[in-house]
Every structure is written in structure tokens, then in C-alpha cells.
Amino acid sequence: MADDVIHNEEAGIERLLEIMRRLRDPETGCPWDIEQDFDSIAPYTIEEAYEVADAIQRRDWRELEGELGDLLLQSVYHTAMGEEAGLFSFQSVVRNISNKMVARHPHVFGDESRDKSAEQQTADWEAIKAKERAGKAQKGTLDGVAVGLPALLRAYKLQKRAARVGFDWPTTDEVIAKITEEAAELVEARETLSQAEVEEEFGDLMFVMANLGRHLGVDPEAALRAANAKFTRRFEGIEARLAASGKTPADSDLAEMDALWNVVKQDERTSAKQD
């Protein structure tokens, strides 16, 4: 019966669950899959989530379909290990998230009015989450902000949490002033302090930059991803133009590559205006 499910392309999620059970079978499964645990699989889970985001940013919908499958496999992997340890199962995970979504949307699934602004819905959502944290004995304002998040994203979330209770600069001007202060401290640290102290000052500057993003309504993680993509695109443009003349970056120098960078940038702007 299990083989029938595994080889049935229309069996849906039950097929994937059965495939994972077979892979993890201590006697007949895959040796690599059998050896894995939560800690060893977690990095793959993070990587797959980023690959989903990358496919979306590139608007590659066919690849997104595949990446979403890879990410779903991570959930199935973790729930299989949870079931083996008697901790939880795929069905309990589905039940919990379904219950959470119903509870957090009383204006859709309950008797509350849907006639609310986006700001009011956000406030209601945060109030419901606060109650959930209280039920989990998470009393501190910053409790529940995952330590494993990318550092820039975690900084953004920590500051957002603190701002809810009034620990925040009232305007963007104060944030910019703090950035100036931290940048000056970093310059001083570079000249007089140890490498560890330089790293600390650099971290302070990055933390305040994340706060500036929040004040400007900018997701710093998304902004940096976009900046990375832009840099990659433009540097590849430099390489292409060098290749057209039979050269590589190693055969060039900074002055030439900087000039080509400006050409690529101008071409992008011209193309954007034409679009």
C-alpha cells in the first residue's frame, strides 16, 4: 500500500510524507537521511527559505515552484523527526497553524467586523500575539524574537518590539544623528582600539542603520538583498564589457572598471526611462 502511494503522482502531501518515512526508515532507508537531526537539517531549512525569496525577486516562477517544494520538504523533514521522537506530527503542526490563523483573524473567521483600517488590523494582530506570548510565559518585550534570524533582520525586529513600549527615537532626525555619532566612533576605533572593539563599534553602526530603515518604512534585509543584486548585475556588466575587448578584471585596473561601472549604471537608467 505504501509503495502505491509513493508511486502515485496524484497522492499529494500523503505521498511526500510516505517518501520521508521511507527515507528515514532505520532498516531500509537512506543512510544519510537516517543520520540527520534537527540541528543538522536547520541550515538547509534556512537556505531553502532564502532560495524561495531569491526566485521571487528574480520573478522566476517556474523555479519558485521547485523552491517552494524544497521548502515544503524541510517542514516534512522536521515533522518526521518530531514524530519519531514523540514530540509532534505533521498533522499536529498543520492543526496548530490553522488554529493560529483562525484565532488571529476574528474579523474573517469570527464575528468581528471587517470594517477596520490596515493600521487597526495590525494593532489587533499585535494584541493577539501579545496574549499568545503571555500564554507561553514570554513576559519580556523581546521574548520570542528568534535568535537564529539573520542578524540584520533580528535587529529590525528587536527595535520594532522595543518601539511598541515607547523605547524609540521620536523622529528620524535623532536616528540620523546617532548614525553620525556611531560612524565617528568607528573611525576612532579603527585608529586606537583592538579588532574586537572595532567589530563592536561596527556592529553598533549596523544596528542603528537597521533602525533607520524601520523609521523610513524600509525592510533593511530586503534593501540589502536588492543592493546585492544591483551590485552583482552591474559588476557582471563590467565583466561583459571587458570580455568584449578580450580582457578580464584581472587585466584591468580600478580606473577602467570604475568608468565601466558608470557606463553600466547609465545604461540601466536609460533603459528604465524607456520602459
TrEMBL record:
InterPro entries: MazG-like_dom, NTP-PPase_MazG-like_C, NTP-PPase_MazG-like_N, NTP_PyrPHydrolase_MazG, PRib-ATP_PPHydrolase-like
Molecular function in Gene Ontology: ATP diphosphatase activity
Catalyzed reactions per annotation: ATP + H2O = AMP + diphosphate + H(+)
NTP pyrophosphohydrolase MazG-like domain location: 36-109
Highest taxon above the source species: Bacteria
Catalytic EC class: hydrolase
Pfam families with a match to the protein in the record: MazG, PRA-PH
Family matches, as PANTHER family: NUCLEOSIDE TRIPHOSPHATE PYROPHOSPHOHYDROLASE
Protein name: Nucleoside triphosphate pyrophosphohydrolase
